[in-house]
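Example (one chain per record):
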Amino acid sequence: MDRYHRQMLLPQIGREGQEKLRAARVAIVGCGALGTAAADLLARAGIGTLRLIDRDLVELTNLQRQTLFDEADAAEQSPKAVAAVGRLKRVNSSISIEPIVADVHSGNVLSLLDGVDLILDGTDNADTRYLLNDAAVKTDRPWIYGAAVGMEGRAMLIVPGQTPCLRCIFPDPPAAGELPTCDTAGVLGPATAIVGALQANLAIAFVVAGTSRPCQGAHLD
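Predicted structure:
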């Protein structure tokens, strides 16, 4: 526990909070800009188990904002989940980190998230976010929504039964092409880093202290 000494000095965490972090199991769906920023911070904070889920390969254009990858990963077209885990194990070898190279869909989302305490959204499309929301509500599992495009972003902790869920706030998913994307509108690296850091902060706060506040039903078939 010595490596977390500066963190445990914080009255909001202490040794008891650090033990909670070590016992926590967190899944990060999407190892892009948000996912890599959040994963890096959570690994350094001592989250005991991280499960990184992503289907994509590292590309050169990712390096402007996806902080766990380098040019060698892009040249080798390494799976993002595998490359991210390789980096994080060099950052903190005392935690368990599991890569899963998979496309998340309605047929596998529940099994991919089985056994975790908290889900972080590192995805880049509304369909997957609503799928994560419905899986989280169905299994009574908290999750942290995040998004960034252009020079702005947002993050929100969702706790089924205590807070509104994504469908409570936005009942209908946006139509295809309705929202700007990083591919169409661009994205600033620091903006994604800020949102990823906010997600990591929400995750740490939730694991250590929990939260409270009203959610309605899932729509997962």
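Caption: The first strand starts at residue 25 and ends at 29.
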